[in-house]
Amino acid sequence: MQKVAFYSLLLLSILTVSCLDSNDDPKPQTEVVEDFQEGVFIINEGGYEKSEGSLSFFNPQTINVTNEAYALVNADEIVGDVLQSVHATGDELYLIVNNDNKVIVTDDSLRLKRTMTNFSLPRNMVSYEGKGYITETVSYAEQGRVAVLDLERGFLSKTIAMDWYPESLLIAGDHLYVSNQGSDNLFVVSLISDEVVDTVAVGASPGRMVLDDDGDIWVACGGGYGADYAPLNNGSLYEVDPQTNEVISTVDLGLNTDAKIAIDNQGERVYFYSGTDVYYVSTSSPETPSAPFFTASNALGLYGIGFSPDDLIYLADARDYVEPGEVFIYNEAGVIVSNFTVGQVPNGFLFN
């Protein structure tokens, strides 16, 4: 059942906003009743080159949905062209806007603090001891990089050269792992020196990574495509020991995926999807799934997955990539709990 709440807006006085690396004038801000402190942000890419990226927020306690949350707080200020991801660190949120080559920084109530613009097709972000790391495609004709930010002073401190199409990042111990989708490997970066110290060969098109209950890294590899762009159905999951950077196990999935995964709160099941089918692999006895765990029967095209702190599976449905998207919530038994409408092209979740 779709459940949407409409929030009354309370006009506040104009606030002065510091926009680092931006020529934008300070914007007036408004406040919604929702405080965004406990709930789920839904990341909506929006249409490519249409500046339709947006944030939705779902409060599971009140069963309320706020669409266009960033615009509501910041007096209709738009997010921009392709909201790729959102990262939370301390009391700040970092909105990674891919095709606009910028990062929007807000407080934890979504009020704009500054906008940083020294990026080239940024993708995803993690943070560690006062530093932020953001993958950048740079261009489709050259190798990518990771931007290193000084979060306290709010500036770009250096870049680290990567391979083709660096995508996701994960921190394990004192190392940063970066998946390079165009070269089928992980780069291992020392968080002390911010230099590449190792590489790990994995499957075709590596994407998201998670840590299991033993501290091992699981990498989703989406699979490749033939000359006619037909899927090769060679997607896989790789388990990597971060102590040795050796591959422990490989699960051949027999299909292509979006290379997006989520792991349960016990670190025992890695969830992924293909089409509208959802699967899982046990981290203790990894085997190729013989059948889907369940099918999101009302979805048109799954485009993101997450696992919440209260043990629920969240699925983002991009629909036809034009109309508003949908979120479906399932429990661990594979039974649907709820669904609701969000912005265009939802691709993932941030559990706050």
Question: How would you characterize this protein structure?
Answer:
- This protein has about 350 residues and is mainly beta.
- It has 1 helix and 30 strands.
- The protein has one helix at about 70-75, and strands at about 10, 30, 40-45, 55-60, 65, 85-90, 90-95, 100-105, 110-115, 120-130, 130-135, 145-150, 155-160, 165-170, 175-180, 185-190, 195-200, 205-210, 215-220, 235-240, 245-250, 260-265, 270-275, 275-280, 295, 300-305, 310-315, 325-330, 335-345, 345-350.
- The strands form 8 sheets. A 4-stranded antiparallel β-sheet has the order 5-4-3-30.
- The longest helix has 5 residues, at about 70-75.
- The protein is globular.
- The two termini are about 25 Å apart.
- About 45% of the residues are buried.
Instruction: Outline the biggest β-sheet.
Output: 4 strands, antiparallel
Question: What number is the mean pLDDT?
Answer: 91
Structural category is mainly beta
The quaternary state of the protein chains shown equals single chain
| Uncertain segments | 1-31
What is the gyration radius calculated from CA atoms? 20 Å
Q: Helix count, per DSSP? A: 1
Number of strand segments: 30
DSSP strand content: over 45%
For the termini, the CA-CA separation is 23 Å
Tertiary shape: globular
